[in-house]
């Protein structure tokens, strides 16, 4: 019998054990396990112990590890999608929209760094969640493509293929989750600011509008 079931004194805690499981609480615990030990640390046993519930109780809601990943995936991607939509709705200026989106994605890459690449790749997800991953991925990417296209139209980004450009920007930010190290003390704001500088490096919106689509000023 574990301490979570008995307490520090070795006696079972008073009261009946919970019969239902809060899926948000499951998602939080799974995220913590990812941070502590990566993909291999995410288990039914570890989740139950960390939540202070019996394994049998957890099994009734979450039968296996894939379902643990599915719960975390759906909560995180749902929240990220809603925040991205709110950033777009919060301004009529495409440049401000893209700036806000890059900031949100940089923050997510840092806070979700233990599992972001797993989720954006779809690996390890249960079949039913994986079947929903593709349409979610397309919808999320479309948010970026539309904003990038609007930035190209108004001259905030060089004219080009908006899908390729959006994928490159998004991929650049997602990759932050692979190299980020807290000890380096690089903030999400600094990452976002640098990314924004990179995508606009050497670009003069006024010159672009004057010269027309597809033309770039010659480098000196």
CATH class of the largest domain: Mainly Alpha
Which second-level CATH architecture of the largest domain applies? Orthogonal Bundle
**Which runs of at least 5 residues are low in confidence (pLDDT < 50)?**
1-16, 211-220
Which descriptor suits the 3D outline? Answer: elongated
- Helix/strand structural class: mainly alpha
Explain the overall architecture:
- This protein has 2 domains: 3-61, Arc Repressor Mutant, subunit A (Orthogonal Bundle); 73-211, Tetracycline Repressor, domain 2, CATH 1.10.357.10.
- It has 12 helices and no strands.
- The protein has helices spanning 3-6, 23-37, 44-51, 55-61, 65-89, 94-111, 116-121, 127-154, 162-174, 176-179, 188-199, 205-211.
- Helix 5 (65-89) runs antiparallel to helix 6 (94-111).
- Mean pLDDT is 80; it is low at 1-16 and 211-220.
